[in-house]
Amino acid sequence: MKAVVLTGIRKMEQCDIPCPRITTDMDVLLKVGSIGICGSDVHYYTAGRIGSQVVQYPFRVGHEFAATVIETGKAVKGLKPGDGVAVEPAMSCGMCDQCKANRRHTCRKLRFLGCPGQAEGCLSEYIVMPAECCYPVKSGTTLEQAAIVEPLSIGLYAVESSAQMKGARIAILGAGPIGLSVLLCARVGGAECIYVTDKIDARLEAARRAGAGWTGNPDRQDIVADIVGLEPFLLDVVFECCGQQEALDQAVSLLKPGGKLMAVGIPEVDRVSFAIDTMRRRELCIQNVRRQNECVRPALDLIENGKVDVDFMITHRFPLDETKTAFDLVADYRDGVVKAMVNLD
């Protein structure tokens, strides 16, 4: 089968590799249909690592995808050949203390697609996944929509973890696919006022279409001063969705006493810092958001029940043999890209 692998920094090649086979009774063989390019995939492409996760070449990235069932293991129920599925990329053991505490996303033996040292990614024609990671989609749901479920589920988990959304006044710093997913879920959750920032005007326009009440570009204005001018008592929650020190500093300045910073973005650097005097005096809370936790099905339901529309996020489409072009586009933030999709069908 055809697959695309990283071979060095900003180097990527298409190659032929053996087609995977079912090895356990609970495995599912999938034909990959649509793959979303995530910022973490791009980190591995441009830097070869995220923190302690270092790529050993060649390596296949990719974890946002939807597929069609080709074959199922003998013990699989609820799935059959021909079914379209959204896929949870995290494979947990189900037995450790974290799994038993309903924290499968921090499983002691977690294997995540496209994560070095854990599992090869989905940039290939076929892949085998555990049945528990496969969520059937309705006949009217496209595989592109099903692939967007992965970032949407992260946005949903971030919003639900903030624990104070109904009537809240919030900011979302970074309007890429994750920030826009937070925006969609915050609206469903009842946020009263939503401020969104980004350095790419096309993404700000997407945020406005998705329901942001105010948008701003930090390259052209003082984000903190402008928002504080409208919110003198400051904000309840800030979602940092771009992994930048500048945005973390803005978040701390925007939060009211007792406010909460949800750190969703993944920094490329090993360390970040905070203005501890402000944080201490305001008694601010910081919570990291680790992917999604039991939110794939609820996120899929949001799409299929018509509560959110995710189609607007998909701005670019590429075939498998143009995957490197797609990664370069996303890495360089060119052409107003929000979500680039690799389609194999």
Task: Summarize the structure in short.
With 345 residues, this protein is an alpha/beta fold. It has helices at 39-47, 97-100, 143-162, 177-189, 201-209, 223-230, 245-254, 276-282, 296-304, 323-331; strands spanning 2-8, 11-16, 27-36, 49-50, 53-54, 64-72, 84-87, 90-91, 111-112, 126-130, 134-136, 169-173, 193-197, 214-216, 235-240, 255-263, 285-288, 314-318, 339-343.
Write the layout of secondary structure elements.
Layout: E1 2-8, E2 11-16, E3 27-36, H1 39-47, E4 49-50, E5 53-54, E6 64-72, E7 84-87, E8 90-91, H2 97-100, E9 111-112, E10 126-130, E11 134-136, H3 143-162, E12 169-173, H4 177-189, E13 193-197, H5 201-209, E14 214-216, H6 223-230, E15 235-240, H7 245-254, E16 255-263, H8 276-282, E17 285-288, H9 296-304, E18 314-318, H10 323-331, E19 339-343
Parallel strand pairs: 12-13, 12-15, 13-14, 15-16, 16-17, 18-19
Antiparallel strand pairs: 1-2, 3-6, 3-10, 3-19, 4-5, 6-7, 7-11, 8-9
Helix pairs in contact: 3-4, 3-9, 6-7
Describe the protein in words.
By secondary structure, the protein is of the alpha/beta class. It has 10 helices and 19 strands. The protein has helices spanning about 40-45, 95-100, 145-160, 175-190, 200-210, 225-230, 245-255, 275-280, 295-305, 325-330; strands at about 1-10, 10-15, 25-35, 50, 55, 65-70, 85, 90, 110, 125-130, 135, 170-175, 195, 215, 235-240, 255-265, 285-290, 315-320, 340-345. Strands 3, 6, 7, 10, 11, 18 and 19 form a 7-stranded mixed beta sheet that branches. It has a 6-stranded parallel beta sheet with strand order 14-13-12-15-16-17, with helices on both faces. Helix 10 links the parallel strand 18 (about 315-320) and strand 19 (about 340-345).
